[in-house]
Amino acid sequence: MFRRLGSRPCQLLIKGRTIDWLLSESVKVDDDEDYDPPDSEPLIDFVIATGYTDKPDVDEEGKPLIRHTTAIHDVVKCYRNYLIPDLFKIYDKFDVNYTDESDGLTHFHAACEWGSDDVVKKFLELGQDPDCLPQEPNTTSVDPPLHKALMEERKEVVELLLRSGANPNLTNNEGKTSLHLVGPDEVGKMFFEIIDEMNQPLPIDVRDEYGWTPLQRAVMFGSRKLIELLLARGSDPNLSDEEGSTLLHYICMNRDPEDRDEELANIFFKSIDNMGLTMQVDVRDNLDRTPLQSYAEHCRYSLGSRC
Predict the structure, then answer these.
(1) Which of 170, 196, 224 delimits the end of a domain?
(2) pLDDT tens digits, one per residue of 151-179
(3) Most CB atoms closer than 10 Å: which of 8, 99, 282, 299?
């Protein structure tokens, strides 16, 4: 499709921002639900082969203009993140953190989410703030880089960010901290180890905008190992959410009445007993239901007269 013109780099033939626009257009996907985008883009391969790299525009003082949407932002929007490593071969100025003009997403966010630990490291070495706080008032919807790395289980990136001073207590637009997003896997284990090693304060029962603590969220999603971890670190099992529901309400409501799967409840109560904690079993929610009454009501909805 493309023919390399001798050894001349393409920036001598086409203006840089035109290349920028062509790259952005090449990575966008068709709205057709049946369209399956390719795993690579010939234009990206061609531009890399020419040796072309992006040269930022500058203001009157010679400072880079970072408020600029690039193909890297577009591949994130189109869920074609697998193209990011190649695009960073073109956008290789890691002291310039381009920011999407529409939502505030930066190249650094994209690198953290994709798990490009070598790129993240280069950004940090050149002075990038690991928290990458929004610079514009309308860009608060962008999650902190640490959140993105945790959600995608990017172990190396999480470690780089934490050891570079990322704040684990920053909240996103839903009030969630990194503790609401950490998982029970190796990434989660490493997260807590680094937090302890660096003596980083970490409020264990912080609430998001729905009133959920990390422990309540772990119970809602059945994260058994995480439940044990959070209880071991002092999370209060008796806290209620905005509806007055405690963890025991959630455990009772989430159990499958047909399977009678008691594993989650057993792990929870075993952890409570091992730590010598006291569980309030008859606390009532805002509808005046105890956990047992919540379970009975759940049974009626699920099984009708069989319960």
Answers:
(1) 170
(2) 999 999 999 999 999 999 999 999 999 99
(3) 99
Which residues share a beta bridge with 58?
Answer: 64
Give DSSP secondary structure letters for 160-180.
HHHHTT--TT---TTS--HHH
Domains: count for the chain: 2
Secondary structure of 258-300 as H, E, C letters:
CCCCCHHHHHHHHHHHHCCCCCCCCCCCCCCCCHHHHHHHHHH
Same domain, 101 and 220: no
- Residues near 101 by beta carbon (within 8 Å), at least 6 away in sequence: 67, 68, 69
Q: CATH number for the domain including 149?
A: 1.25.40.20
**In-domain check, residue 188:** no
pLDDT in the model for residue 30: 67
Please tell me the pTM assigned to this model. Answer: 0.84
Alpha helices by DSSP H, listed for the chain, are: 16-27, 42-50, 71-77, 84-87, 107-114, 117-125, 145-151, 155-163, 178-181, 186-197, 214-220, 224-232, 247-254, 263-274, 291-303
17 vs 52 pLDDT, higher one? 52
Q: What percent of the chain has pLDDT over 70?
A: 84
Tell me which residue range forms the domain holding 137.
16-28+39-170
pLDDT digits over 94-117, tens only?
A: 999 999 988 899 999 999 999 999
Cβ neighbours of residue 153 closer than 8 Å, sequence gap 6 or more: 183, 185, 187
